[in-house]
């Protein structure tokens, strides 16, 4: 028996989508604040996740819990504390990682364009855009740190909101549009 997923839009989807669009507009209004809030949220998430992981593995030590899980939890706690105490350095580090990922994905797309002749043009263009973004972020690290994470978060929130309003969420069951029931 296979389960089908169909996209159906409900009133709840539209309401949440509109709220996400409004939140994205607020984030676009102050991307520096969105960067700081997202960095602090990431720090607190790492801290709480690490503490829960350490507590969980210590409580299950007799049942064969791994010491590597405990070590991973400790690393998350330290990372979370560091980011919470130094949100500017946390944002700088995340921006450096984002710039490196843009640069790397651009290079990989451009290199893989030669292996796929039918998609070569699209891969080269998207690779050049990613490469350009990576170079821009890495060469303007101080400026990019202030707004990049907030801007990326606002763009992602806007896309999620528009998607919810336009097509809703995937749900189990139902017949997809254009498909005949069996």
TrEMBL record:
It comes from Blastococcus xanthinilyticus. InterPro entries: Acid_resist_chaperone_HdeD, DUF308_memb. GO terms for cellular component: plasma membrane. Pfam families: DUF308. It comes from the Bacteria. The chain crosses the membrane at residues 12-34, 40-59, 66-84, 90-110, 122-141, 147-167. Keywords: Membrane, Transmembrane, Transmembrane helix. PANTHER family: PROTEIN HDED. This is Uncharacterized membrane protein HdeD (DUF308 family). Coiled coil: none annotated. The keyword Cytoplasm does not apply.
